[in-house]
Write a structure and sequence with these properties.
- By secondary structure, the chain is mostly helical.
- The protein has one domain (about 5-15, about 20-330).
- Helices cover about 70% and strands about 0% of the residues.
- The protein has 14 helices and no strands.
- It has helices at about 5-15, 25-40, 40-70, 85-110, 110-120, 130-155, 160-165, 185-205, 210-230, 240, 245-255, 270, 275-290, 300-330.
- The longest helix is centred in the C-terminal third of the chain and has 35 residues, at about 300-330.
- The radius of gyration is 23 Å and the shape is elongated.
- The model has no long low-confidence stretch (mean pLDDT about 90).
- Bound molecules: zinc ion (ZN) (2 copies).
- Pfam families: FA_hydroxylase (PF04116).
- Keywords: Membrane, Transmembrane, Transmembrane helix.
- This is Fatty acid hydroxylase domain-containing protein.
- It is found in: Membrane.
C-alpha cells in the first residue's frame, strides 16, 4: 500500500481539530496545528517535539558558554579562574550527555504523551492558555522543583547513593554549561522527577494544564541548570537583580566545596536550614581578603584568591573522601 500523505493529513485534521476556528489562532498556534497534522499521530508528534525541544534548548544554551570559555577577556568573571575547561573536556562531556539522551531519554519519551493525556493534560489542542494562566503555574513548578531538589540532592550526598550515583556529576569541581546534565542515569531519573512531577501532580488535581506551559517551564529550567553550571558570575547575572536567585555563584561553590548549596533555583531553603554556612563564610573571607589587598599588585591579589580557592577545594576533597568511606563502612556492616 502506498502511503498517501494528503489523506493522512485530512484524517488527522478531522480527528484532532474538528470544529476549530483556525482564523482566530496566532502564528505559533497555527505552527502547532501544522506540526500535529503533519506528523498525523499525537504520540509521535509530542514525543518528537519534546525530544527536539530538549536538545535545541540545552545545547543552544550551552553555545554562548563555550564561546565565552574560549575568550580570555571573560576570565575576570570566572568563579574559579584557575580552572577553564579545555575543548577536549567539553567534547568528552558532550559525548556522554548525547549518549544518555539517545539511549535513555529517547526510548522513554514516547510514554510522555500517553501519560500526559491520562492525567488530563492538553497537548495538541489550541489555543494556548493566556500568560495570566501560565505564569503562576510556572512559578509553582519552579517552587516545587527547587524544594524537591533540595531534599533529593542531599540524599544523593550520603554514602552509597553518592558513591554509586552522584559521584559522576561531581567529576567537575569547576563546572561548565555542558556539565549540567552530565550525570548517572539514576540521577537523571531521581532529579528529573522534580521537574516532571510538579506539572503532573498539578494537572492531576486541577485538570487545567497545557503541554505548551510545560514546555516553557522545561525550557526555563534548562536555562537555569546550564547557567548554574556555567562557572561565571557577571555583574548583570540574575542573582544580582533577584537576591534570592541561586545562579552560578551558588552552584559553583557546591561543586568546588562538595558541601552546602543543595537547591537549584532559589537560595531560601539552604538559608533556612543552614546548609549555606560554609558558603557564606567563604564569601566573607573573599570580601575581607579583597578589602585587605586594596592597593597591592594584581599578581598578589590573584595569588591570594588562588590560595583561598585551593583551601576550599582541599576541604571539599576531604569531605568527599569521608562520604565515600561511610559508603564502604555501610557495605562492611
Ligand atoms: Zn552534589
Ligand atoms: Zn551540578
Amino acid at each position: 500500500m502506498v502511503f498517501n500523505a494528503t489523506v493522512a493529513s485530512a484524517a488527522a485534521t478531522d480527528l484532532l481539530y474538528a470544529g476549530t476556528d483556525f482564523t482566530s489562532l496566532n502564528w505559533l498556534e497555527k505552527q502547532w496545528v501544522a506540526w500535529y497534522v503533519w506528523i498525523g499521530n499525537p504520540i509521535i508528534a509530542t514525543g518528537l517535539m519534546s525530544f527536539l525541544l530538549h536538545e535545541i534548548v540545552y545545547f543552544g544554551r550551552c553555545v554562548p558558554w563555550i564561546i565565552i570559555d574560549a575568550i580570555p577577556y571573560f576570565r575576570k568573571w570566572k568563579l574559579q579562574p584557575n580552572k577553564v575547561p579545555t575543548p577536549q573536556e567539553q567534547w568528552e562531556c558532550t559525548k556522554q550527555v548525547l549518549f544518555s539522551h539517545f539511549t535513555i531519554e529517547l526510548p522513554a519519551i514516547w510514554l510522555f504523551h500517553p501519560l500526559a493525556e491520562g492525567l488530563g493534560m492538553e497537548t495538541y489542542q489550541v489555543p494556548f492558555p493566556s500568560w495570566k494562566t501560565m505564569a503562576p503555574q510556572i512559578f509553582l513548578f519552579f517552587f516545587f522543583e527547587d524544594f524537591f531538589h533540595f531534599l533529593a540532592h542531599q540524599a544523593l550526598h550520603t554514602g552509597v547513593l553518592y558513591k554509586h550515583i552522584h559521584k559522576l556529576h561531581h567529576k567537575y569541581s569547576a563546572p561548565f554549561g555542558l556539565a549540567a546534565e552530565y550525570a548517572h542515569p539514576a540521577e537523571v531519573f531521581i532529579l528529573g522527577t522534580g521537574t516532571i512531577a510538579g506539572p503532573m501532580l498539578y494537572c492531576y488535581f486541577t485538570q487545567n494544564l497545557h503541554i505548551f506551559t510545560v514546555y516553557i517551564w522545561i525550557s526555563l529550567r534548562l536555562f537555569q541548570a546550564v547557567d548554574a553550571h556555567s562557572g561565571y558570575d557577571f555583574p548583570w547575572s540574575l542573582q544580582h537583580i533577584l537576591p534570592f536567585w541561586s545562579g552560578a555563584d551558588h552552584h559553583d561553590f557546591h561543586h568546588m566545596a562538595f558541601t552546602n548549596n543543595f537547591s537549584t533555583s532559589f537560595r531560601w531553603w539552604d538559608h533556612i536550614f543552614g546548609t549555606d554556612d560554609k558558603y557564606r563564610l567563604y564569601k566573607e573571607k573573599v570580601k575581607a581578603a579583597k578589602a585587605a589587598m586594596k592597593g597591592s599588585s594584581i599578581e598578589k591579589q590573584k595569588e591570594i584568591e588562588r590560595e583561598i580557592l585551593e583551601e576550599v577545594e582541599k576541604q571539599g576533597l576531604l569531605a568527599e573522601a569521608e562520604v565515600e568511606r561511610s559508603a564502604g563502612k555501610a557495605k562492611d556492616e
